[in-house]
Design goal:
- The protein is of the alpha+beta class.
- 16% of the residues lie in helices and 35% in strands.
- The chain has helices spanning 3-30, 108-111; strands spanning 53-57, 76-85, 91-100, 118-124, 128-132, 135-138, 142-150, 153-156, 168-176, 192-200.
- The protein is elongated.
- The N and C termini lie far apart (83 Å).
- Mean pLDDT is 84; it is low at 13-26.
Length: 206
């Protein structure tokens, strides 16, 4: 190969590289041409609900009091209350927790599962009336929510009306000392704390 031929080949390669470089420059310039658009805003607003349960006296105005002295076997104590869902949200479940009001002052009245105090809760669809100061009557449908159970415990309430927002349960709560309670129950005293509680219903797709 002579010197003239090598020179021509070099020129061809240089020319090819120049074409490739020019093409790349044109492609780069094209990225600056962009169209854009957007929609009108979609405004999202979320307000949370309130979960609230309230207990009020049905007959003894302004008081929620279950206290008795000189209890003997066979005695019972009953009070009427309204359990109200005054929130805006449904519950998935409601329960009644009965616990000693002072854990240092328990006695056989609350620790004896057989002959100690027994707890009962009933509901009335129309509300309880009180023919006498110690008796209650229901003209509607009654339902037993807790049936003569040991006074200390945690009790699920089956399908109460107050599980729904705005719902109300008309309840009577009773404590009784069984007739089989013996002499070992004389002179005793115990306090109970009765608390109704609820769990929020599951969230849903809106």
């Amino acid at each position: 190969m002579n010197a003239t031929t090598r020179t021509r080949t070099a020129r061809k390669v240089i020319g090819s590289l120049g074409v490739i470089g020019a093409a790349a420059a044109v492609a780069g310039l094209g990225t600056f041409g962009t169209f854009t658009d957007s929609t009108t805003p979609l405004n999202a607003t979320v307000a949370t609900g309130t979960l609230s349960i309230n207990l009020t006296a049905a007959h003894d105005t302004g008081t929620l009091n279950m206290a008795a002295t000189n209890f003997v076997p066979g005695d019972s104590l009953t009070r009427s209350v309204n359990l109200v869902n005054n929130g805006t949200t449904n519950f998935s479940a409601l329960n009644l927790a009965a616990t000693p009001s002072d854990a240092t002052k328990t006695s056989l009245l609350t620790t004896d599962q057989v002959n100690g105090l027994k707890l009962s809760v009933k509901s009335c669809s129309t509300g309880w009336t009180r023919p006498t100061s110690t008796t209650y009557a229901c003209s509607g449908t009654t339902k037993t929510l807790v049936n003569n159970a040991p006074a200390v415990g945690n009790f699920a309430l089956p399908t109460p009306a107050s599980i729904a927002a705005g719902g109300t349960d008309h309840l009577i709560i009773s404590l009784a000392l069984p007739t089989d309670a013996g002499n070992q129950f004389q002179g005793l005293s115990s306090g109970l704390s009765l608390t109704f509680g609820g769990t929020q219903a599951d969230g849903t797709t809106r």
